[in-house]
Amino acid sequence: MSQDVIEEGELSNSLLLKRQPREDEQTTKTPASSSSSPTSVLLLSTLVAVCGSYVFGSAVGYSSPVQSGIMSELSLSVAEYSLFGSILTIGAMVGAIMSGRIADHIGRKATMGLSDIFCLIGWIAIAFSKVSWLLDVGRLLVGYGMGLLSYVVPVYIAEITPKDLRGGFTTVHQLMICCGVSLTYLMGAFLNWRILALIGILPCLVQLLGLFLISESPRYLAKIGKGKDCESALLRLRGENSDISDEATEIRDYTEMLKRTSEAGIFELFRWNYTHLLVVGVGLMVLQQFGGVNAIAFYASAIFISAGFSGSIGMIAMVIVQIPMTALGALLMDKSGRRPLLLISAAGTCFGCLLVALSFLLQVLASTESAHLLNHDLMFLTIAFYHVQDLRHWKEVTPFSALAGVLIYTGSFSLGMGGIPWVIMSEIFPINMKGSAGSLVTLVSWLGSWIVSYAFNFLMKWNSSGTFFIFSSICGLTVAFVWKLVPETKGRTLEEIQSIHG
Fold this sequence. Notes:
Elements: H1 8-16, H2 23-28, E1 30-31, H3 40-62, H4 67-74, H5 78-106, H6 108-127, H7 132-160, H8 166-188, H9 193-199, H10 201-210, H11 218-223, H12 227-238, E2 242-243, H13 245-258, H14 275-290, H15 293-306, H16 311-336, H17 338-374, H18 381-417, H19 420-428, H20 434-462, H21 464-485, H22 494-501
Parallel strand pairs: 1-2
Helix pairs in contact: 1-13, 1-22, 3-7, 3-8, 3-10, 5-6, 5-7, 5-20, 6-7, 6-9, 6-10, 7-8, 7-19, 8-16, 14-19, 14-20, 14-21, 15-16, 15-18, 15-20, 16-17, 16-18, 17-18, 17-21, 20-21
């Protein structure tokens, strides 16, 4: 390979050689890195970016409330509707494969605009479809746009935000996904499926128009050699009276260092010096998906019904828990750090899945044991009677145990495991490999999502308690993974993170 190797010491030294501010600058300007107050431009840029996150969430939440309406109006079979639902993930996987490269070639803003166009066309196709194939094409296009958005939104926010605000701002991506899912689910209970699809167009239009008002990522501008534009964008984002010299110098030095390397291709990601980054990025996504999040999100109503609880009440309870816990995670991100939140979140999901597993296990034991005892000999009838009564008492508690487990899982996941893997993915990869690495990590996430959501019903038929014991074990493994391998990135610039862990 022709790619030169950057020595970690050389890179670290270059990052330490920052220009000292002049005396007049010390008296008239405030260092951007010391200020934790977001500017109006930064807030606007983040708000426009997370409109894409809402698009993401509304697409995920669309298929659940509209199922009966679409199937009856278009005369779809269960298999045809299953194709409509799952093809979204296929489109997202295709978008994920291309997302990093597209974002590196045309920029972060243009990539968000491109994804909006695909989503717009997709939603229009769904809203006006008269046949199933047009419905599927529309869903596929929306999925493709989702795949682009799932990568570019957290990366853009991470690249425009100062280090002391980056974690919380990037987690707003997950919060808006959560809002998109929840509000689409609630609106779908009252609105026709065609109207709901047309409503999906609105956040796409808002983001498209908003892109004309916001700055491109300064780090992307530096990467493509537009140093003056990079400084201009930084000044807009940090405030006219901020001293951006240190941050601009750090970005410029790091970018110049990376110019000595070629753009990392997909196979170059597996070089030894990238191993730790790749293990962390891919590992978090694998553990996030195989911990059961999409199984619970897509089939929560069926889980509640199987456990003997009301599906609608359970779903409303999930919405009530999910949004405030995601908001809490965003607020705590830059105070407690990434690792503590991840550890608490993973431990909570482990406990939640364990409660659901025990709920299903007690139901099975109560049914089989009571039948066995009632067929016992007469001499044990009295003992059997009291034993059955005790088992029935436990069986009456199991629906509430399942509800508690799902709510604990949902709240814990929303606190950290939902958003932090995307935050870390956007932080740890150097800009010369961010495109390829981001595409790979996003693809792994969507592939895991498809596998779990497709296999869940089969697993539940095999053994419902065993399924959640598996999820609980994977969540427990996540705790060990975070403890041993995931770095703390709180309070560091992207260049510092990448020089230390790269």
